[in-house]
């Protein structure tokens, strides 16, 4: 399996993984898998179109259009991306509403920076009404409700976000936070229940003043009338306390909450990228793919190989023209060249040189290898014959490969020998070399059978 085939295989593997995740509404996981698919093969049209659909399912219409536009540019004809783009264009009113929803979402973020949470909530509600699948809007609205301690509203919005995308990191964090809040409230209720049992059912009235809780026992029967004035005095005290709290304590508490809200909002805005327009989204995606570390590394390696190949080719041309280098040395330089990286003109020069030099060198090395084999100099024979096979695998109708296999067998490297014997039989069937290779394998099989019977 060559390098290109491996890349295509990996790209298709991650596409199938993304498709499976999209089918179970794991949109975040699908996005991750499909981006990996495109890292292995940027021209995988199916992956790019599916990535656009996943973005669309999350309400990220700008990102979806960016993927489909790229797909259309890569394959203008017979591309389902054309259908998706056309459908979006036909629904001009829907597209305008989505555009307005994105603007309201961005405005809500600005309001968060300005500590105007009420205005932000209003903008997000309108954004969701215009664009019901906008996951980011549900997440930000849930966060604002959490900070306002409106946990029921927060839970309702985060559940919708979870239905739209089952594994979004931000959604999962907010759900965890709400679960923690629920657990802590349940613990307080249990503690209050236990305390009530210890008091043997005594009824109380509870007042909250700032961070303090005042528990007032309630008498029953005739004692209610006797303590009427006392209750009035307590009520007046509570009113005065609330007034004092409003004038003195609440400003400090409000400032503290605003500071905390500001920090959390800034942190949240850093986690969620905002998109201003389709052009900026398209540029962002292009930059991401172009700056992919894996792709950059592959491009750098390819460039380096190409550079080395051209330098070696230029060296061979120069020495061949001046005649100051032997054919054997020229052949060694040509073997270092990766012809697949050469352009049309470079490939033409390469083919011309190999057509002139390789036959001469193969003939010389083959004759020398025969002599080496006859005097049991198998190591030198293997070295020379490997070079012959590299230059011309079928030299002398497989005779050079046969001699290489026989030399490996004499060295005791039976596995390598058998590999070449089998290759000769498959590629050069009907030749003398293939017949001898088959005889060699038959002898080995007969010997194994005999040894097993003994």
Notes on the structure:
- It is a single chain.
- The chain is mainly alpha-helical.
- The chain has three domains: 3-90, Alpha Horseshoe (Serine Threonine Protein Phosphatase 5, Tetratricopeptide repeat); 98-271, Alpha Horseshoe (Serine Threonine Protein Phosphatase 5, Tetratricopeptide repeat), CATH 1.25.40.10; 296-453, Tetratricopeptide repeat domain (Serine Threonine Protein Phosphatase 5, Tetratricopeptide repeat), CATH 1.25.40.
- The chain has helices at 3-23, 27-40, 45-57, 61-74, 80-90, 92-113, 117-130, 135-147, 151-164, 169-198, 223-226, 228-271, 278-290, 293-322, 327-335, 344-374, 378-391, 399-411, 414-427, 432-453, and strands at residues 204-209, 212-217.
- It has a two-stranded antiparallel ribbon.
- Strand 1 and strand 2 form a beta hairpin.
- Helix 4 crosses helix 5 (80-90), helix 6 (92-113) runs antiparallel to helix 7 and helix 9 (151-164) packs antiparallel against helix 10.
- The longest helix is centred in the middle third of the chain and has 44 residues, at 228-271.
- It is elongated.
- It starts with a helix and ends with a helix.
- Mean pLDDT is 78; it is low at 198-226 and 270-279.
